[in-house]
Amino acid sequence: MKEFAEFELTPEFRDRFQEALDQRDRTFIEDSLRDVNPVDISALLYEFNAEDSKYTLDILPLEVRAAIIKDLDSDTRKSFLKVYTPGEIRTIVNQLDSDDAADILNELPIKVSEEVLVELDPELRTQVIDLLRYDENVAGGLMAKELIKVRDHWTVVQCVEEIRKQAENVEKFYTIFVVDENDKLLGKVALQDLVISDASKRVADLLEQEVISVETYMPDSEVADIMKKYDLESVPVVNVHGQLVGRITIDDVVDVITEQADEDRKLMSGITEDVEEDDTVWKNTRARLPWLLIGIFGGMLSARFMGLFEKELASVTAIAFFVPLIQATGGNVGIQSSSLVVQSLASSGYVEEGLWARLSKVLFVALLNGLFLSVVVFAGNWLLFGNQKLSAVVSLALFSVVVFASLVGTITPLILDRFGINPAVASGPFITTINDLLGLTMYFLTVMILL
């Protein structure tokens, strides 16, 4: 395994590197980046414009250049490749695996993509054309065509010789897939078993038939779940006839998991579009505005609702002091409950355990939390205000809010999931707005009854 030089991107180095770029100091750039990990070079290039980045990459070896471009995020890469000619892009793409090559071609303008595709190495071109048939968010669009496959009737010697030939085009492999004469997947053989087995032994004798595979049309999120569940480093991809057509490796799945987490984080924060910090002002505004409007609408309802209790507020002004406490607690409890439900919905165990069992557990947790918080608030209010009756009212209202907010935070994602809506949208502003209204209702009803 190649050892890379240590690299630290400091402001001083960035400024010195910019100076070298301005002066087109090839020697400094080459010496600075020699034996540096391509990932570290990618982080450096984010600091500079496309023209300066291209000048830097043109100095580096071709395989390093290809690795860096492959690892750039999609938006940056699309902007970056605009300064490259189709011929330069073709040279880089020829160094990549088929799945990475297909991803880049999908990002290019159609005219440029066609010019690059027609000039690719014949074998890679055939593989990429096959991959471009699939949507990006299914197993077929995620897989790479490069893999190691052997026939079940071969001997270990024949198998090893064939592996040596095929391995020239496969960067990493841990498992050998076994197919019949029609490329139908029969199973797999561990590389270790081949190494330690007798040379005359047939592959069929070493075959492990219980192999987990995915279909080309399976959504990428399900592929990620399968690989996480069974702790797989790679998984074979088969078509509707059971023929082996590719493999998906763990690095591709990590990208999917990261994208899913990023999407859920944005939804839970009330951001409705896929946006980045450096996107346009209008796009960022549009992504945030819908849930903010819901929050504004909820706030207006809360204000109108409080107006119904104007007499109570006028007679005991101290009850207004605790409105922020009630609303904040209800919102926090609701978000906690909904976040746990959203996380659990990804597991089949959530369904298997049953709805009533889950709701019972949520209720008991809410009762314990509510009881503890109520005691703390009662003691604190009594010490601060010296009004035992007011302290009891606030504590009882808080207890009710915690219990009901927990149930709302649990049930709302389940309802949205049942109707096919991403349950992540149940968090953030949505749950907070509902529980603000719920908290005020519980609070003022308690005030009306007991004060």
Please supply descriptive tags for the structure shown above.
451 residues; mainly alpha; MgtE N-terminal fold; CBS-domain; Tetracycline Repressor, domain 2; 3-stranded mixed sheet; 65% helix; elongated
Give the biggest beta sheet: 3 strands, mixed
Helix content: 55-70%
List the uncertain runs: 348-352
What structural category do the secondary elements indicate? Answer: mainly alpha
Mean pLDDT: 82
Query: In the CATH classification, which architecture of the largest domain applies?
Result: Orthogonal Bundle
The number of domains is 3
Outline:
The protein is mostly helical.
Topology:
Layout lengths: L10 H12 L3 H8 L4 H8 L4 H10 L2 H10 L2 H7 L5 H8 L4 H10 L2 H9 L3 H10 L7 H4 L6 E3 L4 H11 L8 E5 L5 E6 H6 L6 H4 L7 E2 L4 H11 L3 E5 L5 E6 H19 L12 H27 L2 H6 L7 H22 L3 H6 L1 H31 L2 H31 L10 H22 L1
Parallel strand pairs: 1-2, 4-5
Antiparallel strand pairs: 2-3, 5-6
Helix pairs in contact: 3-5, 7-9, 8-10, 15-16, 17-23, 19-22, 19-23, 21-22, 22-23
Q: What report would you give on this structure?
A:
Helices cover 65% and strands 6% of the residues. With 451 residues, it is mainly α. It folds into 3 domains: 11-137, MgtE N-terminal fold; 149-254, Roll (CBS-domain), CATH 3.10.580; 281-450, SLC41 divalent cation transporters, integral membrane domain (Tetracycline Repressor, domain 2). The strands form 2 sheets. The chain has a 3-stranded mixed β-sheet with strand order 1-2-3. Strands 4-5-6 form a 3-stranded mixed β-sheet. Residues 348-352 have low confidence and may be disordered.
